[in-house]
Predict the 3D structure of the following.
Amino acid sequence: MKALCWHGTNDIRYETVPDPEIEHPRDAIINVSSCAICGSDLHLFHHFIPTMESGDVVGHEFMGEVMEVGSENKKLKVGDRIVVPFTITCGECDQCKRGNFSVCERSNRNKSLADKMFGHAGAGLFGYSHLTGGYAGGQAEYVRVPFADSTHIKVPDSLSDEQVLFLGDIFPTGWQAAAQCDIEPTDTVAIWGAGPVGQFCVRSAVLMGAQQVVVIDNVPERLAMAEAGGAIAINFDEESVLGRLQELTKGKGPEKCIDAVGLEAHVSRSPDSVYDRVKQAVMQETDRPHVLREMIYVCRPAGILSIPGVYGGLVDKIPMGALMNKGLTVRSGQTHVKRWSEDLLRRIDEGQIDPSFVITHTADLAEGPEMYNTFRDKQDGCVKVVLKP
Ligand SMILES: [Zn+2]
Ligand SMILES: [Zn+2]
């Protein structure tokens, strides 16, 4: 089959690789109808995530038709149309039973490696390094879905691929980030990053009834899309983020702050980001936490910081004194995708939201390597790319 494979920094190739096969009776093989490039794939593209190996098939946002099921898999049959959550879940361990699917205790087959790095391993993820199980990803013609009787979302034929594809990652990721904020009708919710996840944070916070939703980015197309979704836009190249947030909240600061940027904050003019780039270059720090620092500083005391943005390792100069003395709550995590899927599928079906709004580019899987560049450079108004195998 054909797939997009990782070969190093800025090197994704469209290649022929062996077809996947059923390896366990709970597996299924799907024929991919649509897949997407996620913002967090760029962290792989830039080689910020360790334990990638040359030839790994990438991609963790995909859907398709079931073409083969293992003998123990009673939940799926050939021909079912499913979206595949990026977090692989056994459905049976203590954490899965509690709905904490992204920290499933059984699905990461390289658990000991991740235990060593993080204390406790998280779930296995598709196409996202050997630290998260080394599973082949979904930017491919076919994918083996492990624990497929648990790891799937069945979708009705009445909804298009474009409407449901993002149920596997960016929609529940934005939703969970907003849900973790316990939004109240009097809240101002400030969201750093107007990429695809930031866009879903905006729409989710609006659906949850926030009084004011503010988004911070410097790409005009992304800011315009967020404004269309109900946000007030701050372009950090043109105005002071702190000044404008103070003005919008009468000096009190936003009650809820969401970091939809993560480890590769691109702001380049602030003194702390110069510091981060230097430390990163000499391998004294792995991640660039500019957004985290800014959120801690500006957040209203007793507020909540929600972090859906991906971090990989160590960050430096986090103002712990401000965090503690202001009484801030920090919530984070990979997305417990299945916790939200039923509710979000219903909301799409009822027309409360049509997630296809975020798609700016659709291309053949063969054009994937080129589309990674377009997405990275935000050329041609690119916010979200869907690929068709
Ligand atoms: Zn993702
Ligand atoms: Zn589990």
Notes: Residues 188 and 212 are 5 Å apart (CA to CA). The first strand starts at residue 2 and ends at 6. The pocket of zinc ion (ligand 1) is lined by residues 38, 40, 60-61, 86, 169 (CB under 6 Å).
